[in-house]
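User: Continuing from earlier, I have the next pair ready.

Assistant: Great, send them over.

User: Here they are, in order.

Assistant: Folding the first of the pair now:
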Amino acid sequence: MHPEDWPAVRRIYQAGIDTKLATFETRAPQAWETWSAGKRPECRFVARDQDGLVWGWAVLSPVSKRSAYRGVAEVSIYIDPAAKGRGLGSMLMEALIEGSEAAGIWTLTASIFPENEASIYLHQKHGFKILGRRERIAQLDGVWRDTVVMERRSLVVGGG
């Protein structure tokens, strides 16, 4: 992923936000720099078609600034609604897992709305386990929402 991909990445992100199934965010930031500041630089991927159009993306965000958690990152994967069901989520997840292990990350986490069954399935398919459910963890548009907490421990990094 490169800064010039931002318009497509932002559009796909906003489409995910609009579903109310993907995130507590209500609006994608306008500026690449604002969005990029909270993401790990070495683990950013896009799925392109043969014409170079971006149809999905995946990134990792640090979970803490504390050095003890340097090998723990949170997963974000978004697919253009017009491209769902084509296997892009799995392709991006595989790239993210491989990239994370190359970067020394030993644990990947995800916090997913329970209604987002497709995302939960994707994560389970790639070795994530459900750790639990956070009840009424935050509000989205004034409505309390739960999240399912998932985790994948690397078998390659950190003595997994």
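And the other member of the pair:
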Amino acid sequence: MIRTISAAAALLAALAVPAMAQQRISLTVAAGQPPSALPSLALVNKYFIPEVDKRIKDAKIDVVIDWKEAYAGSLLKPYQMLDGVKDGLADIGFLPTIFFPDKLPLEAITLNAPFLTTDLALLSRVMNKLHDTVPGFTQQYDKFNQIRLGGTGADSFELLTTFPVKSIDDLKGRKIGTAGAALAWLRGTGATPVQSNMMEYYNSTKNGVFEGFIVFPSTFPAMKYPEAAPYVAKVGFGAQYSVALTMNKDFYKKLPPAVQKIMTDVGREWAVKSDEAYATAGENGYKMLPSFKATLFEFPEAERKRWAEAMPNIAKEWAASMEKQGVPGNQALTALMEEARKAGIKPVRDWDK
């Protein structure tokens, strides 16, 4: 009788304990910008996070993620993001790769090969191929203890001015503001490049510091740039890769393999949706031009080619500078152009030749 009671008690105790305890994971996502400012960042909250949760639930994985979201620099400023994720201050970071040309040098490759394509989705597919096949791209992130979940960029950069521009001849002697690698796009045009940034474009144009600037149309509604520079020249400098969603590698390794796969799968899909969002936002930017009383002029293909060929081969210059730093710039440039041509892109200029 005692043995029977003991066996029954043991059975009840076993039934009272779940077959597998649910694992709760605390995960912090950080960005230096507010979600309202960038379509790709808004989709981290609206798509990436809920989609990861959905797939974990659908797969019946006994994991629950407690998400903590720290945007608008509340945890890390944009320039702190790379080291912040490396050190584990954030587990996932919205990383503006264009801010780190010295630490993530290969990520600046599209800025050094302008006039490639205005199709952001197509450019992103090419960049994903490079990340998958050229080891140097992954090794950049290895140095900073993180993996790239996905990457995106911005719609095609164009020229806004206070005067009409219908050919590169119209730029001679004019001061044009832009940032970073894009300063080189003005070489060979006779224009004077002025180092600036998106936060200064409007006021600096109004105050006469320069007479135009280079920016992407998805910014028009929020930043109201065509008010300051009402002549929009659709030059087609091209869509530009500029952002990655990354995860701390130590944190990633602690996740169950099934959750790791969900993170990388959803990261790639987040990037695709971000590309689509930027394309739509860019189209909306153009649609708003009448409300700004702005004039749009689309460069003929021959003039785009003339501009590209007036420049020195800045891509070859960039690749050579990478090689001097021990970075495989030549391999990356060759891979970019070959993959672009395979994807059906017809470059205005073959930067690898």
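Worth noting for the second one:
Residues 257-287 form the longest helix (31 residues). Confidence is low (pLDDT under 50) at residues 11-19.
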